[in-house]
Amino acid sequence: MNPVSRNPLDLSEIRKRLSLFLTSKDALACARVCRTWSKDFLSAIWHTIEDSSQTKLAALDPSIIAKHGHHIRVLKSLPPQGKLLDMLQDTSVSNLKSLSIVTTPTQVLLAHYYDIIRRNVGSLKMVNLSFPRPNGVGVYFVTESLSPQTHTGDTSKLSYLKLQGLQMTRTAFSMLLQSCPVLEHIDMYDTVLHSAINMDKYQHPRLSKLTAPIEQVFSPDPAMTTAPSLLIHFPNLSQWETWQISQTLNIDIDMINKEITRCLSNFTVIHTRPGGLSLANMLIYGFKGLTEICVPHKHLSPEFIIATLNHQETLTTFMTTPPSSDTFFQPNSNQQIPAVEDFLTSSGWMLHFIPRECSRLKKISLPTHGIRMDDVDKIGWMCNDLEILHIRVKGLDTEEQINVTLKMWLKAKNSARRNSKPDLSAYDLYYHSQERDERYVSIEARVARHLLKFEKLHTVWLGTKVWRA
Questions:
Q1: Lesser CB count within 10 Å: N end or C end of the chain?
Q2: Cα 41-46-51 angle, rounded to 5 deg
Q3: What is the pTM of this model?
Q4: Among residues 214, 164, 255, 277, which one has the least CA distance to residue 294?
């Protein structure tokens, strides 16, 4: 009878679970321990094919790809040509979950790419097809490549799809949506949908998120100005990330607002990227009942602030930094304190009307706008359910000042949990100069006192790292 091992790594199941958290380099080292370990770490080694690993893979014998291709789940960038592309067309590469193709392809390469897509259509969850078109002519998209064949019994698992630099008919686009029943997020840019009078306008019941510029959404066919917007396909759309490509928008803003009102009954979240898009008009006349608004900081204006107040009964999140490029708020971030910018100049005080009037706010993120505590005290914030706050305060300019402020807040918040009432001692509240003038309240104490007004506040960033209560 074999003795029971006390080493957890002797169990195959534990090794397999551990492999999910290793880099391919570490997984390779583990696989070389012995033949038994090799079987458990093979899937981690082959899981993801990146640009950096393509040269080494191309040097392998094709039989190795044929043997282990069924382990590949993520192809971050298909090679534009060469031996590796030929090797990846092996029938063993048939369990991909994520595929990204970013290149300017020839017709021959397209045929190879579509074959790989078609072979993996039953397992793919994320697909990125980005084809820059220097000659101005988009690549024709073969819709059938993403449509499972009936005889195989496969159903599409695709939840995210990005299309750039393509062209297809509007009916083909409807067929594509219909063949992807669990699609939740579509990202479109520079893609032409050729329209016709009797075209299909399939409405996807599940898709909830759209990433596309204004021009793509409201002018999908430049040759037919009367073509309906993309919004007609997405009756349950709730989130849209958008921007404006050209400096001058050649689309009637009234038409845009009418289309938004007509098509987006369940819409709640709008994010915009840097560009010339003016959101104020759409916030007043188009969107209704938004819960989340995110705009570039330089788009803040008195007009925008007033337009935002149109959603004061529903707004719970107000941001000037999109989550996708969020680098300020990492828990272990040690980056330098970002510079404060003020695009509002003398109108910065108006920004405080948002936390005063939008009482349902739970998150405020203004990482590059420096607020003045005098404005805060005069106008007042009434968002008592606030939970997350990312702000810069003028006067809190050093890491030491910020840390002192947040230590005050945490100390008083912890005492409130024990005693049901915050305890800020005179030592914490006042800045004692050499003359010990207690009439002067420090900026650190003023900010800490402001934070304590929000009992539900648990996450704060003032310019350095995130602090959590």
A1: N
A2: 140
A3: 0.84
A4: 277
Phi, psi of 170 (to 5 degrees): -65, -35
Tokens 């005290």, located at residue: 377
**459 backbone dihedrals φ, ψ, rounded to 5°:** -135, 125
Measured CA to CA, the distance from residue 381 to residue 384 in angstroms comes to 8
- If you search the block for the tokens 């999109």, which residue do you land on? 322
* Collapsed DSSP state (helix, strand, coil) of residue 368: strand
Residue pair 233/177 in contact (Cβ under 8 Å)? The answer is yes
Q: Name 317's bridge partners.
A: 292, 363
Element (H, E) at 194: strand 192-194
At 59, give phi and psi (nearest 5°): -80, -10
CA distances from 463 to 280, 321, 445 (A): 28, 14, 17
Place of tokens 């695709």: 158
C-alpha–C-alpha distance, residues 221 and 227, integer Å: 7
- Rounded-to-integer distance, Cα 272 and Cα 321, Å: 10
Rounded to whole angstroms, what are the CA distances from 274 to 213, 241, 300, 451?
11, 11, 11, 31
d(CA 149, CA 382): 57
Phi, psi dihedral angles at 431 (to 5 degrees): -95, 115
Residue with tokens 């300017």: 104
Angle CA(85)–CA(88)–CA(92) in degrees, nearest 5? Answer: 165
Beta strands 139-140; 126-130: pairing state? unpaired
Q: How far is CA 438 from CA 233, 238, 367, 432, in A?
A: 64, 52, 31, 6
What's the CATH number of domain 268-469, 3.80.10, 3.40.710, 2.40.128, 1.10.490? 3.80.10
Q: Distance (Å, rounded) from C-alpha 303 to C-alpha 271?
A: 17
Taking Cα atoms as reference points, which of 302, 305, 299, 294 lies closest to residue 277? 299
Nearest to 186 by CA among 177, 199, 195: 177
Give me 197's structure tokens.
């009078």
Query: What token pair was written down for 314?
Result: 């529903």
What DSSP character marks residue 5? P
The predicted-structure confidence for 212-269, as pLDDT tens digits, reads as follows 999 999 999 989 988 999 999 999 999 999 999 887 888 899 999 999 999 999 999 9
User: Under DSSP, is residue 263 helix (H, G, I), strand (E, B) or coil?
Assistant: helix
DSSP string, 171-187: HHHHHHHHT-TT--EEE
CB 263 within 8 A of CB 229: yes
Regarding beta strands 459-461 and 467-468, do their DSSP bridges make them parallel or antiparallel, or are they unpaired?
antiparallel
